[in-house]
Design goal:
globular; four-stranded antiparallel beta sheet; alpha/beta; Rossmann fold; 249 residues; 35% helix
Length: 249
């Protein structure tokens, strides 16, 4: 069970270049998969195809053996939680900001608090004068603005509102420092016990937590394996890892 990409190719409308091409891999149910590659390598395109925001131009994507195009799109999306790096900042209360992740559960305070706890957004909300009822954002006189990292935790909590079977995190922690990102992903891995997850991050401290890593280069799959296996191959992954490690030394 899980997703299978069979020779998938896609290019954006009016683009000459293929965003991804000849992609074949498996994402097993319950697996945490990380995507690594430079900007423009096709990481975000891959997760957009997975969430069926687009359909492939070549090949097909199967879920439990059935073509994604044959599923009811609303039902499919209800089971996929996505956090992209350009998340939305709603000028609502802190609680509503999280609740919109699952509109029909907006009034479920226990569920909102649970989602906040999972994303470590409860620590942010604890500092607000009116807690979950505090308006956030600059639009209101009584609103309290948050830092980029604090907004990010609220956005991650919003994704936890959905009891999604598949979670996609596309650099959702770019505004967090390396240590906070590590904590968010560690928490995420602990909580995603039976869930399938796809994670995109530039930080190897987070990437190495994945069960398996795919290395993308110019829209194609260059290598896959665990952190240790990929380092041993001495390819692109090892090179990128070394560059980053050198920056911390």
């Amino acid at each position: 069970r899980g997703f299978v990409f069979e020779d998938v190719g896609f290019r954006y409308p009016d683009a000459e270049r293929w965003a991804v091409r000849h992609l074949s891999f498996e994402l097993r149910a319950g697996e945490v998969l990380a995507l690594v590659g430079e900007n423009g390598a096709g990481k975000t395109t891959l997760v957009k195809l997975l969430a069926r925001l687009y359909d492939p131009d070549e090949g097909r994507i199967l879920l439990d053996g059935v073509d994604l195009r044959d599923y009811d799109i609303d039902q499919l999306r209800a089971n996929i939680g996505v956090i992209f790096q350009d998340f939305v900042r709603y000028h609502l209360t802190a609680g509503e900001n999280i609740g919109v992740g699952q509109i029909d559960a907006m009034d479920d305070k226990a569920r909102i608090r649970d989602a906040a706890r999972r994303a470590m957004a409860d620590e942010v909300i604890a500092t607000l004068p009116n807690g979950y009822d505090q308006l956030i954002g600059r639009r209101f006189k009584t609103g309290v603005d948050l830092s980029g990292g604090q907004w990010q935790k609220i956005a991650i909590a919003r994704a936890y509102m959905r009891d999604a079977q598949v979670m996609i995190l596309d650099e959702p922690t770019a505004a967090l420092d390396a240590r906070s990102e590590f904590e968010v992903f560690q928490r995420f891995k602990e909580l995603s016990d039976e869930r399938t997850a796809v994670l995109i991050s530039h930080r190897f401290s987070s990437v190495r937590m994945a069960d398996r890593i795919l290395v993308l280069e110019q829209g194609q799959l260059e290598a896959s394996g665990t952190h240790e296996e990929l380092l041993a191959q001495n390819g692109r992954y090892a090179e990128l890892f070394e560059l980053q490690a050198a920056g911390y030394r």
